[in-house]
Amino acid sequence: MTSATTAPTATVTTTAIAPASQTQSSQTQSHPRTLDHDESLLATTFSALREGKLDEAQRDIDTLLHAQPDFRLAQLIRGDLLLAHAQALDHIGNTRQDSPALEDLRAEARARLESVLQPPPAGMVPEQVLLLADSIRHIVVVDTEKSRLYLFANRNGMPVYLADFYVTIGRNGSGKSHEGDERTPLGIYRITSRLHDSALLATYGPLAFPLDFPNDWDKHKGSSGHGIWLHGTFSGTYSRPPHASDGCVVLTNTDLDSLANFIAPDNTPVLITDHIRWVTPDTVLAERQQLMQHVSQWQQDWQSLNVERYLGNYSKDFTADQTGFADWAARKRQIAPGKRWIKVELSNLSLFEYPGQSGLFLADFRQDYQSNNLVNNMHKRQYWTQQSGEWKILAEDSL
User: Fold this and answer.
1) Structurally, how many domains does the chain consist of?
2) Residue 393 or 39, more confident
3) Residue where a domain terminates, one of 99, 117, 135
4) Cis peptide leading into 337, omega within 30 of 0?
5) In terms of Cα–Cα distance, which of 261, 139, 138 is closest to 194?
6) Residues 6+ positions from 81 with CB-CB distance below 8 Å
7) Distances (CA, A) of 283 to 66, 254, 351
8) Tens of pLDDT along 291-337?
């Protein structure tokens, strides 16, 4: 149906399309954004609605529905636009008969519009990403609070914003702890593989990227579960409400196809946090330097052959491969007399503030160890925290 050519008989109130926390004006500067075409059309529709330009809004929504006829939120907004020619809109889905499905669509509208009104601030970076190893080309950061996935490139160890996408997370939010809780985990995960439609159930869409949940830290915490993926949507469903998955991170098939060009299994970290803290690069550099100093001191203490100084870097709550500090330290003291020299080289270092755990930091690196009686090479992950004002290693795992 074409849009009406006569002037509207009623106005559209801003509450029809504004999210709950509209705090950023259109004048606020932000990153140059790479929005997908579909969401750009939705954004221009909202903008036209706010200004009462119903014909422009309907033109944009019709274009969007022509490209994505299964986009239920767009279908709802088109119905509202037709109604707006006769009466004012109080909210999206302007009906007296509310339903859970309608509330889901309103929640999606709020999440999508808020991302347009409050984009990543210019010149700022996620505080959780302190350093990216040279081998990492891109990193994915999911903000569960905003139902948003951000894609960054690695530029000299610093994340540089490229694009962001609307996502669905677990029905019960984030912070997964056990099988079946329908929550999305918070943490730093490795993409284990790329699965195409021939290997997938229809509900996952045509493409999926499994994550290594539960990872080593999840196992330290006792978290359980499986099957946490980045994946698409069922054929005939363009997008899902903000909280609608069993714990996976779900994108539209169009967005996932775009994101897939930047994802490399085993090489693209996926950081899932409940809230991104945007800070200046200088703030990240200062925090990076502080943690690097502690990692370097640990390395030097190990090479010093002073086993007590080396053990002083570890918390009394330390565990490694399910071994507690006392037994682990006893083993180190036992083998120390046989070492005449030790050389430890670190490479491919990445540093993160670990999501979902206050004051926890991850150092991820390759370790080349040589001594007079042993040579090995491994991928190591160390978890650092402050205890009584001192930095200590809380857990250490070899992958």
Assistant:
1) 3
2) 393
3) 117
4) no
5) 261
6) 3, 49, 54, 57, 58, 61
7) 46, 35, 14
8) 999 999 999 999 999 999 999 999 999 988 788 999 999 999 999 99
Residue 90 tokens, joined = 């109080």
Residue 158 shares a structural domain with residue 231: yes
208 has pLDDT over 80: yes
Report which residue type is found at 355: P
Q: Which domain holds residue 207?
A: 125-279
Q: Which of 55, 82, 117 is the last residue of a domain?
A: 117
Chain segment 232-263, per-residue pLDDT in tens = 998 878 788 899 999 999 999 999 999 999 99
Q: Mention every residue, 6+ apart, whose C-beta is less than 8 A from residue 337.
A: none
Per residue in 25-38, is it b (16+ CB within 10 Å) or e — as a string?
A: eeeeebbebebbeb
Say which CATH number the domain at 386 has: 3.10.450.50
Q: The tokens of 34 are what?
A: 């790479």
According to DSSP, the residues that pair with 375 across neighbouring strands are 370
Q: What is the pLDDT of residue 9?
A: 35
* pTM reported for the whole predicted model: 0.84
As a whole number of angstroms, the distance between CA 77 and CA 98 comes to 15
* Same domain membership, residue 101 and residue 208: no
Q: What contacts 356, CB < 8 A, 6 or more positions away?
A: 174, 175, 185, 186, 187, 273, 274
Q: Are residues 154 and 38 in the same domain?
A: no
Asked whether residue 4 is assigned to any structural domain, the reply reads no
Q: Token pair for residue 290?
A: 């502080």
> Which residues lie closer than 8 Å to 270 by C-beta, 6 or more apart?
139, 140, 141, 142, 188, 189, 190, 191, 211, 230, 249
DSSP letters along 177-239, please? -STTS--B--EEE-B---EEGGGS-GGGTTEEEEB--S-HHHHHHT------EEE---TT---
Tokens of 371: 């001594």
Q: pLDDT tens across 68-98, in order?
A: 888 878 777 777 776 565 445 555 555 555 6
The dihedral sign for the CA sequence 275, 281, 282, 285: positive
